[in-house]
Amino acid sequence: MRSGQTRQRGTSIVAIVAMTAMTAACVSGGEVRRPVRASAKPRPRPAPAIPNDVAFRQCAANLTALAVSYQPLPNETKGSGCALNGTIKLLDYGVPTTNLGPMTCTVATPFTAWVRNGVVPSARLYLGADVATVETFGTYACRNVVGNPGMAGKRSEHAHANAVDISGFVLTDGRRISVEKHWTAGGPEAQFLRRIRESACKRFKTVLSPDYNAAHYNHFHFDMGGKGGYCR
Question: For labelling, which of 49, 51, 64, 132 has a CA lying 20 to 30 Å from the CA of 125?
Answer without folding.
Answer: 64
